[in-house]
Amino acid sequence: MATSMRGLTQFIADIRGARVKELEEKRINKEMANIRKKFKDGNLDGYQKKKYVAKIVFTYILGYKVDVGHMEAVNLISSPKYSEKQIGYLAVTLLMHENSDFLRLVVNSIRKDLDSNSEVDNCLALHAIANVGGSEMAEALSEDVHRLLISPTSQSFVKKKAALTLLRLYRKHPEVIPAAEWALRIVSIMDDQDLGVVICVTSLVMALAQDHLDAFAVCYTKAVDRLHRLVIGHEYSATYAYYKVPSPWLQVKLLRLLQYYPPTEDPTISSILHQVLQTIMNNCGEPTRNVQHNNAQHAVLFEAIGLAIHLDTNSPLVGTAAVLLARFISSKETNVRYLGLDTMAHLAARAESLDSIKIHQNTIILSLRDKDISVRRRALDLLYSMCDVDNSEIIVGELLRYLRVADYALREEMVLKIAILTEKYANSYKWYVDMILQLISTAGEHVGDEVWFRVVQIVTNTEDLQEYAAKAVFEHLKAPSTHESLVKVGGYILGEYGHLIANEPGYSPLEQFQLLHSKSQFCVAATRALLLSTYIKWVNVFPEIKPQLLNIFERYRHVLDAELQQRACEFYALASRPDDDEFLQNICEEMPPFPPRVSALLGSLNRKHGDTGDKRTWIHGGKEANLDREITKRKTLMVDTSGSDNTASGPAVGGQDIMNALAGLTISPSPNAPSSTPLLEAPSNQPRLTTGASVDRWFDKLTYAAEGVLYEDVQIQVGIKSRYQSHIGQLAVYLGNKVDAPLTSFTATVHVSDPEALSVSFAKIPPSTISSRSQTQQLLHVECKKVFTTPPILTVSFLAGSHQTISIRLPIVLTKFFEHVKLGQSDFFERWKLIGGEREAQSIFSVVSGHRLNVLEEIDPNPNNLVAAGVLHMSVEGKVGCLLRLEPNREAKLCRLTVRSTSGDVATEVQKLVQKPLMVSQVP
């Protein structure tokens, strides 16, 4: 640029050559006057506009105010030449703020560049949006940025910039980004081959998922799969190996993303995640001489430990982590000590037992005197989190001793934490009062009002503590210098309960008055107003010092402060009334107990720890402090994060590998395959079902058949082969790609509406790509725990030109878990009568089909009737018998079906399933 614009080069040289500020300003003013003249005359070509705008940009960078060139910069953005467009975008991003009126003029030009086939134009536009995008620009262009991100024709570096641009827009204006609608499409890019794209998209997903957990739940499986491929499979290019650590930035982001969701109940995903975490911890040996390698390895390790703590604090992984952390908090490197203390605070905030942390209590206390303030702050957080009934006196004592020499930046937070710990773990009220008064005396101006408010509340509500509190505060007020917060506490407590100690030597009413009033001259008006209230209380209970108190009221009647003057006048009038007046006694009665309320100290402490870019997954303060937060998060995410709501998997049927038993299943194309399928609205907590006549017919057939087609269209075919025994079932799901291009970003999840009744889980994470004209198979483990009524839903999503999502019901119904039962005529009707009509469900219909119920021959006296029996197996509720009787009516061409069971729910569900016209059969 410098060689092509000699005028700009000379201008820069003149500025640099100016020996004094005045000469520089003179040269700039001369140039700005010339530029204004040129712009006013017009008739400038693109090169001249570019040159003059570049001079304006340079002047702005030097710190001078610029009020010219904005319109010319807007015009340059529309130029077809890259050099002119570049200067235009540079000027716009530097000279304009997000609310500038000029930005409205460039929206169409930016959209044109976003739609351009030139990647360079795309990137210039994305930079401008990210740097100055206001709410109007975000609303107008967010769709275009999203389109660039998901477009299969976009280059990798364009996708990276588009993802980061969306992230910037979401953080500034989250309301204009339809995150839930874009969730599946954005998450699918986490399967991209370019790890740079994956890193940028993961950053975007992290921000979006924090506010939309349900919508982005599928990212859990993607994150685990990518971690497994990185850490165990070593699937990455050498470009992304940072000092032999595979893409540590991506690993850290994925490990952090998983902490936003509750631990998965899917045994397959849980097992893979355990392997990943175990491998990361095993790879962390002794530190090497290469600092960069150590930093990258430690970054991944500490995030992995945080995830292990989040998943299960009682797991062997956390035991291994506790040993590693003990080594890290004693490290010679400041960064390692910092991270070790912070991660150990995480463990203390979530762990059931603190024994593994208490072993290192002395080391942690010594960290309070570390040379680095960040380490000292983390040590304070850790001591706060690890404090309990057993070590509270030691920790509070150490914190009070350190408070005298602590940094001023730490003192206010320390005061809050000491006050909270003292109240929470006080073994006696007297110890509480001693510690709090010592805290107030030591901390001075760092004590907030909420601290002494809390002291007053507790003393007022605890009758046995009032006399001791009065004595204790009196002794603390004897110190040569006392802070105003202590005077406030003393004024309130002595005013309310000073009479309880007035008869003891050294605590007479006069001594109380003289001591308290001697401190008032150093206090502000608000504190002296409180002391006046104390004096009027004393007028009622200490008549012997009434003259001295009246004298104080008389003096304060003439002060300039309106509040003090009003109080003094009112109190003087009250105190001057006759001695037998009951009016004063009623006004000056003791304060009643405060109503139960939540301590304001915790709220104040939480405000100190304001949210940063990423929300914390835990808070300081021990397991109890994190319990409510965890419950709230679990309520927010009702669906299992893996998308399959799984809790168990069954063993192989009959000791055989089901994959061998089901091998060889091939599904021929169906002539009735639907080319397009409408979507029906489903409840918000369930996937939207893909339906159609063929889809429903295939599902109905598979509720009694063991194998067949479940879904098919022009792109994909889904087939099923199943096997059941007792309460355990196994399904082989065959996924066939029917097109000549691979299906990428493939995701398969299972949603179960009632996970306590039915468990369905994948044996392994489905592949992310299905090759063209090929078929892959996935094994599903099924377990029936209780009676269930809603089949699970299989959701498949993939990229095939555009993003496709299919949600179909799996043919897993209650009758799949029945076992044949052989009964004689007498046994059948004996049980039939024993069950009675209370568990009976009847229906009239025209066709009938059996569902794993054993049809019993020659049982019913009417040879035209059919009877059947079976036993339903459930792992939780055990076995439930079921009897069925079918009575055909030839004249009406209808059948009467009666189902009886010891469980009404079973009878109703069996009746509903059997009456469906799954297989047309003639009425005998």
Automatic annotation (TrEMBL):
Pfam families in alphabetical order: Adaptin_N, Alpha_adaptin_C, Alpha_adaptinC2
Record region (Disordered): 665-688
GO biological process, one term: intracellular protein transport
Organism: Hebeloma cylindrosporum
Protein's UniProt keywords contain Protein transport: yes
SMART domains: Alpha_adaptinC2 (SM00809)
Function, in words: Adaptins are components of the adaptor complexes which link clathrin to receptors in coated vesicles. Clathrin-associated protein complexes are believed to interact with the cytoplasmic tails of membrane proteins, leading to their selection and concentration.
Locations listed in the record: Membrane, Coated pit
Assigned protein family: Belongs to the adaptor complexes large subunit family.
Keywords recorded for this protein, A-Z: Coated pit, Endocytosis, Membrane, Protein transport, Transport
One term under GO cellular component: AP-2 adaptor complex
Descriptive protein name: AP-2 complex subunit alpha
Record-listed a 1,2-diacyl-sn-glycero-3-phospho-(1D-myo-inositol-3,4,5-trisphosphate) binding positions: R6, G7, K38, Y47, K51, Y52, V53, A54, K55
GO molecular function, one term: clathrin adaptor activity
Topology class, membrane: Peripheral membrane protein
Polar residues bias (residue ranges): 667-688
Domain Clathrin adaptor alpha/beta/gamma-adaptin appendage Ig-like subdomain, chain residue ranges per copy: 700-811
Keyword ATP-binding: no
Gene3D superfamilies: 2.60.40.1230, Leucine-rich Repeat Variant (1.25.10.10), TATA-Binding Protein (3.30.310.10)
